[in-house]
Design brief:
The protein is mainly alpha-helical. The protein contains 26 helices and no strands. One of its GO terms (biological process) is phosphate ion transmembrane transport.
Amino acid sequence: MESNIYLIMIIALAVLAIADLVVGVSNDAVNFLNSAIGSKAISFKTIMIVASVGIACGAIFSSGMMEVARKGIFNPSEFYFDEIMFIFMAVMITDILLLDFFNTLGMPTSTTVSIVFELLGAAVAMALIKVLEAGGSATDVVEYINTTKATEIIVGILLSVVIAFSIGALVQWVSRLLLSYDFERKAKWVGAVFGGVALSAITYFIFMKGIKGTAYAGQSFDLIGGITIKDFLESKWIPIVLVNFVFWSLMSYVLTVFAKLNIYKIIIGVGTFALALAFAGNDLVNFIGVPIAAYQSYTEWSMSGQLASEFSMSILSEKVPTPTLLLFISGMIMVATLWFSKKARYVAETEINLSREGEGKERFEPNFLSRGIVRIGMGISTYTSSVMPKSLSAKVEARFQKPKIALTKDKTYEMPAFDMVRAAVNLMVAGILISVATSFKLPLSTTYVTFMVAMGTSLADRAWGAESAVYRVAGVLNVIGGWFGTAIIAFTASGIILTLINFGTGAAIAILLFVAILLLARNYISYNKKSKEIKAEDSLRRAESSSIQGVIVESAKNTANVVKRTNKIYTNAIDGLAKQNLDILKKNKKGVVKLTDEVDDLRDHIFYFIKNLDDASVGASNFYINILGSLQDMTQSLEYITKISYKHINNNHKKLKYNQIKELKEIDYKLEHIFNETQAAFENHSFDKIGSILSEKDELFTLLSQKIQKQVERTRTEESSPKNTTLYFSLLLETKDLMTATMTMLELYYNEHDSSVPPATIS
């Protein structure tokens, strides 16, 4: 019976391992995809193929990396089999939920940090239970934990953040100083030398991360002095790198001059393969290390014939090879996830947008800390410029002068987030840092390294300008804060789940697994719903036309969408007040925020719209700006109407009187008629019909004035609620502002369309 329980746990851990592989790859794909995707150096399909091959190779070569799950965090000899199984179960349940949570948010986090702190949290909780049950002191817990190794891992991970950012910034600054933004026009030998440096670093990185995990790493050969390959790579790294540099410099020159290949594209392709290989080799332990350790523990215990509560797990202190078949299957699951996971691409967008060259849609809001850091940075920059000789300063500025790129007329084309030099530096520096850490046996997080290198290179490349710096710094702080949150949550949640499992045993495990499945399903449904909302047809589109007539036609769809959503939001506000339905009003607030953000995004795009105009059509800018102004006025009125409606019901104030609701619905019906007519006119491009809509303007404003007058009379004779009176007047006045903005927009379209249509020719 006891054996059956633990067999079921092994099966559950196997299923959890597959799920963890899926959510883990979705998070960590950001590590090796971003440089290639952001630079658009090679096609997306090619990127995926190269990364897939790297993952498959890395997974097969990762056998030697599994020790952290067995003995890296705790002392296995201090625990019995049943306790170890509880620890492993708590770790896997926590890991899946934690990683999926961050994936849903689109925030890259570290699978290494999560697994380390989950193991630490579960082991500490188990140790505390054992110590307290034995009547010992809480200080005795240190005997159960591998404090030296755990401290080394934690300190190494934290140091990697600072080092990766600093080295990334320094190397990118030097690279840009030497190559400038005009790197493709430099002499062929310049690109060849850069290729030699980058490819030799990446090649050594492949040797260190690839061969070290294979069975060949421990073999010795007379050809290399009778020492093992692993020791040879670590002790003879200088001559290896120098030979590599000479070879790859010559090869880069040949490929550039004779084969006419772009050496920067080759670097990005090879670097993507190398980081994918490192990711699989280094991080596979984070996904399947625990289940494999559990399986090997179960195998040893089942052959021992001892009770689970008496079988010591000292066996985990020994080095046990991982079956190659399991590694191969894991690699295939990772590759499949890479191709089909939408969340992987969503997480990747966060880092690309934070390191993007120039302006983009900023996802993070600035805070006092980001503003303070930017001010300090600007102060340092100003001081440096003042003390640096002007001649030297001018030369440096010339190297960082960005080329003027003509805006393309192709609406489907999207500019690269950064150029190929920065992408190559990202891959090269990340590879070097991971290689050095591996050589010196220093633990680190590949996510932290690749992310911070990308942030350092973008800062050095002056991608964070005055227009975007506070948003980018806020984004980096949010991500780093999430990393610390990962550690705290992982430690705490794993400890709590371990405690529940220890006291609830089989029943607790069943309930926790059921809850985990429910939460995963809920996050999946929520993410899909969010994705559909982003892709919704009602989303506003930026104007790309370069003539007035083109802008009129192109912006008609936006206007129809705004009017349609305005109609729905206004009706929901009145209905929510009438029914005192807080859920409707709360949902309405979210709809207004989304609409406002989209209109603001259109206004933020005005600069690029004007740049794209033909010389003969500059007048279109004035029309478009005025249209956006009217749309913004409409959203501001809607925002106020929804806010005061929600506040009134949320504060449990008196319900509006029957006559007030009746009058508001009368206005709503009239507005609905006008909005429906307007929507139809813009959807069908029937701009001539706008005149008939405008003819109803006086009737509508007269109706609003009558309702205001009626409320004045009610207030003097029968109204007893100041809150109701304030709300009703506010609704009427803001409705008047809403219709004023709508009519102004209609007049702009009507007048501009009438003047832009050429007179008919007489045959």
